[in-house]
Design brief:
It is built from ten helices and 17 strands. By secondary structure, the chain is α+β, with helices and mostly antiparallel strands.
Length: 413
């Protein structure tokens, strides 16, 4: 449009391409047709344009104990780094950049975030560093994370890199069924973990954030091995199908019950907890189908076990369930778990029990402020407290309600 023809009141915008836009734009332009095996050299090339070298991509292993290097051309693939005791682990758990001065420059560890879920860490070394470099590297890292997740749908290489043990077929099914292990928006955050990571079978969880409503389900299919994994898959599929039909919690239970009963017969069942949280008001509703009652945590203390009338497990043809309700306060956390956490015991010994679980939850809650870090530490500490025994699946799923709004994120300053 000619200058004289510009509409009155229109502000001229500088559309020229700067260095940062050109760098990130080239990555985006190539990404759509890039085969997965060329992601590594492309990342190294892009980092090199900013003066970075010795690039490593570290991915979280399934047990959430280490960050393992992704092999690839032009990437440095060293030893796995422990999440609990390393610079890379600190960047991963804190979702924040860690800078370590070295004799030949600065070693940077940048969290790879897919949305709010931590994928891993990008590590690199630069000679010098200023705020422009930091900003550009943060944005580049976010694009790299999205690229790893997107291209990971087309290859096994990234999943293979994350494995530090032999995985059962049942666990393979369960991991492919899960949503991202973490979701964080201003109003609410959730995080979950399964154990034993390489042998899990019947436990699973699912969630979705639809407008102002967070939907959550935690399930435990009876039995072990492949049969339990198949039943859990059917239960989660039925849950998603009915949830997307926009029906109430009672109707969701009824549909899941029908699917499990018809497919697996009257002697098979799935315990389940289905929840809805209004993220604008803090109004929590849930249906308990034979599942352990969740814990309500406030200011690091377990203030209440959310006991409620339960209905029969899914598949047993229970009556229409009563929907329980609780108003949350900003900062409240709700911890859901499967019975593998409290029923575990050594042969001839006592069960771990709810009382010990509550004690560990409060200890970990005071030590770990973040939701994802708390879930991870809680799962690992509970395994230690139970003597390292995992004869049954054990799932932890944590919800933190914060309130407020996210509307400001849709406004470009």
């Amino acid at each position: 449009m000619a200058e004289g023809a510009r509409k009155p009141g229109k502000v001229a915008v500088d559309r020229s391409e700067g260095f940062g836009e050109r760098l990130l734009g080239l990555l985006l332009d190539r990404a759509h047709e890039l085969p997965p095996q060329l992601i590594a050299p492309l990342i190294a090339e892009e980092v090199g344009k900013i003066g970075g070298r010795d690039v490593s991509v570290l991915l979280q292993d399934y047990e959430q104990l280490t960050l393992v290097p992704l092999p690839g051309r032009r990437l440095v693939a060293g030893e796995p780094e422990p999440i609990d005791d390393s610079h890379a682990g600190r960047a991963f758990l804190g979702a924040a950049v860690v800078e370590v001065p070295q004799a030949d420059g600065v070693r940077m560890y940048l969290p790879l975030l897919d949305g709010s879920d931590q994928v891993g860490v990008l590590a690199l070394t630069v000679d010098t560093l200023d705020d422009d470099d930091r900003r550009l590297l943060r944005r580049l890292t976010r694009l790299v994370a999205d690229l790893l997740v997107t291209k990971g749908s087309y290859t096994d290489q990234f999943l293979q890199a994350r494995r530090c043990g032999e995985m059962s077929v049942a666990a393979e099914i369960q991991w492919s069924l899960l949503p991202p292990l973490r979701l964080s928006v201003p109003q609410v955050e959730v995080a979950g973990i399964l154990e034993p990571a390489y042998k899990v079978a019947g436990d699973s969880f699912d969630y979705a954030l639809n407008d102002d409503v967070l939907h959550v389900a935690v399930i435990d299919a009876m039995g072990h091995g492949l049969g339990a994994a198949v039943m859990a898959t059917a239960a989660i599929g039925a849950y998603r199908h009915s949830r997307r039909a926009d029906v109430g919690l009672s109707e969701i239970y009824a549909f899941m019950d029908q699917v499990i009963a018809e497919q697996f017969g009257p002697e098979h069942f799935v315990t389940a907890q289905m929840m809805r949280l209004n993220t604008a008001t803090g109004h929590l509703q849930w249906v308990n189908a034979g599942h352990p009652a969740p814990l309500l945590i406030r200011n690091h203390d377990v203030i209440r076990v959310l006991e409620s009338r339960t209905t029969l497990p899914v598949g047993f043809g229970g009556e229409e369930p009563r929907v329980s309700e609780q108003m949350l306060q900003p900062g409240d956390r709700v911890l859901c778990f499967t019975d593998g956490l409290i029923e575990e015991h050594e042969v001839g010994g006592e069960q771990f029990g709810l009382e010990q679980l509550v004690d560990v939850v409060m200890r970990v809650g005071r030590a770990e402020t973040g939701v994802r870090a708390m879930v991870r530490t809680l799962s690992h500490m509970l395994k230690q407290e139970r003597g390292g025994i995992t004869s049954d699946d054990a799932t932890v799923f944590l919800i933190e309600w914060r309130g407020g709004t996210a509307d400001h994120l849709a406004i470009v300053p």
